[in-house]
Amino acid sequence: MATPLLSPAPLQVDAIRADFPILNQANERGQRLVYLDSAASSQKPAVVIDAQANYYRHDNANIHRGVYALSERATTEYETARKRVAAFINAPDPDTCIFVRNTTEAINLVAYSWGRQHIQAGDLLVVTLLDHHSNLVPWQVLAETQGAELAYARVTAGGRLDEDHLGRLLDREPKLVAMPHVSNALGTIVDVARWTRRAQAAGATVLIDGAQSAPHLPVDVAAIGCDFFALSGHKLLAPMGSGVLWGKRDRLDAMPPFLTGGGMIRRVTVDGTTWAELPAKFEAGTPAVGEAIGLGVAVDYLTELGMDRVRSHERDLTDYALDRLQRLPGIQLYGPDDLDERAGVISFAVGEVHPHDVASILAEENVAVRAGHHCCQPLMRELDLVATTRASFSVYNDETDVDRLASAIERVIEVFA
Ligand code: PMP
What we know:
- It is a single chain.
- Helices cover 40% and strands 16% of the residues.
- The chain is of the alpha/beta class.
- It folds into two domains: 13-41 and 306-415, Aspartate Aminotransferase, domain 1 (Alpha-Beta Complex), CATH 3.90.1150.10; 49-304, Type I PLP-dependent aspartate aminotransferase-like (Major domain) (Aspartate Aminotransferase, domain 2, 3-Layer(aba) Sandwich).
- The strands form four sheets. The chain has a seven-stranded mixed β-sheet with strand order 2-8-7-6-5-3-4, with helices on both faces. The chain has a four-stranded antiparallel β-sheet with strand order 11-12-15-14, covered by helices on one side. A two-stranded parallel ribbon has the order 1-13.
- Strand 9 (265-269) and strand 10 form a beta hairpin.
- 4'-deoxy-4'-aminopyridoxal-5'-phosphate (PMP) binds at residues 102-104, 132, 134-135, 180, 184, 209, 211-212, 232, 234, 375.
């Protein structure tokens, strides 16, 4: 008999919230802070803050060189963090996880190092109109310097990838396909495993921007099958300045370094230099050791919660929020209707009220959201929008936060009536 599919056990949000010291604050009217801007940057649990502080308090030293205890401890912790990140995204080999500052740096690393090696005049690069500027501009620059063509897969009015258009672009055998796993502006989840297979069958190398997926969905880079995967620690409960580029070993091995100098060499003579093995080849200079250690603790925190439970929680919360908000007069919600294709991001408009005015009134109610183009100007243009207001969820949000959001939007409606 088939085993029935059970929903994972719900997250205990009150207990989780207590792990995040910053959330324990209120405004002068006694309203608890409701933080709904995790797509921009998440808050950090005490275990992450403490891990970084402990490193500076007890173990601070440069890594990989010292023979004394501090340096050895710092090195061990840094490399342990790499193993934790590898397990988190199911990377087969920790040395293929390169520590960088953020997703932007990860994508630039590939665009410069792999891109200049492989892209020639006349080649086609494909990105999507769902992409963040960080996964557009590096490819624009590469296309310009190499004389290549950059094509943008279109999106539907409902905020999904236009599959026919992307399919037609793949028929033209692009050298590279870069796409987001989750759109930061609309929350759209892209079926990256399926598109990776199709793009690779067409001969493309595939980079997935995982900035908005790694914090919210179970990620398995081996199952996705992509060549490169980029993520930012600061969106994933980890410190600012921590991030990861994962790449297939044969790809990374064959690539020249992005930045050169100390730490990434095997041997330097006045006649020339040879490069270190992975991951050092791509980690020139002194890395952000405490930040990487914090990232290792953050992914363990999420793993302990269970990424299936995180996804299920945020899916339910999105369902609740869409239902609650669409009852408000004059509200317009953007992004896919199907909850299976949507992460915890709610982009919306309130009548003709400017999104910045909406966000300002919400801020007066101690509800933190973002307004603007969300670094997705080409997407906004495609959808004929200038900006949206965006609420985005994480593990510390629950239905009471959505209720506060809805009441604050009611206040916007009142003010502008
Ligand atoms: N890609 C996506 C989908 C994002 O949401 C962001 C951050 N908003 C980035 C890339 C860039 O991330 P970072 O600023 O950490 O480099």
